[in-house]
Amino acid sequence: MIRKTFMIMSALMVAAMPSVASAGGPNETACTEKVGAGATTLRGTIAAGVPTIQPGVQNVDFTLRLERGGAVHFFRANVPIAVFSRPNENVLCDLLGTNSSPAAADLREAILATFGFPLTSRFIVTDKSFSKAEIQGTAAQWLCDGQFTDPNSPLNPTCAAPRGSAMADITIHVQ
Questions:
Q1: Who's near 94: CB < 8 A, 6+ residues apart?
Q2: How far apart are CA 134 and CA 143, in angstroms?
Q3: Taking Cα atoms as reference points, which of 65, 101, 63 lies closest to residue 81?
Q4: Taking the model in full, what pTM does it have?
Q5: What is the pLDDT along the chain (175 residues), one digit of tens a residue?
Q6: Cβ pair 77, 94 in contact under 8 A
Q7: Are 170 and 43 in contact (CB under 8 A)?
Q8: DSSP string, the chain
Q9: Nearest in space to 48 (alpha carbons), one of 40, 38, 58, 56
């Protein structure tokens, strides 16, 4: 009986441990959280354009198309942020929450003001915030100047200065 109780407790402890996000770097867990009562949902898409293919912090062009109640708005910002080897959720959490650059702060303020939220509101990213996302390093993510990029072709960043890009559908919450 004691052995059975120990096995059940061990299984529960393992299940309760935070899991490492599959797209993340070493030991990086996703920053997701649960949505509280009274949160408002914004749905849309996000596109990220990376000027050079390199690890570390670099300026990334973000375009967000967000919708609430049929009203669609576009937001663009060039933000210094690390995107490679990070879970998509962590990039979005950084962009909409922790990144201290003026561009990220202005982006957050513009989204809140455009949709009529108090500027003290915060964004919530869940484990279901991303869908239909391109996986980093797959075909059609590296762009070469003056060339059409076929989404069905294999990864081939052989151009002189390849640039990265990715797109996804997103659902974020404001509280």
A1: 81, 82, 104
A2: 14
A3: 101
A4: 0.76
A5: 454 443 434 333 333 333 333 334 444 666 888 898 999 999 999 999 888 767 789 999 999 999 999 999 999 999 999 987 788 899 999 999 999 999 999 999 999 999 999 999 999 999 999 898 876 555 556 777 777 777 666 655 567 667 778 889 999 999 9
A6: no
A7: yes
A8: -HHHHHHHHHHHHHHHSPPBPTTS-TTPBP---PPPTT-EEEEEEEEEEESS--SSEEEEEEEEEEEETTEEEEEEEEEEEE-TTS-HHHHHHIIIII--SHHHHHHHHHHHHHTT--TT--EE--TTSEESPPPTTSTT-EE-TT----TTSPP---SSS-EEEEEEEEEEEE-
A9: 58
Q: Which residue has the tokens 């949160």?
A: 39
Which pLDDT does position 18 carry in this prediction? 34
Cβ neighbour number for residue 102 with a 10 Å cutoff: 11
Tell which residue, 127, 121, 93, has the closest CA to residue 109: 121
Rg from Cα positions in the chain = 19
> What's the CA gap between 24 and 47, in Å, rounded?
19
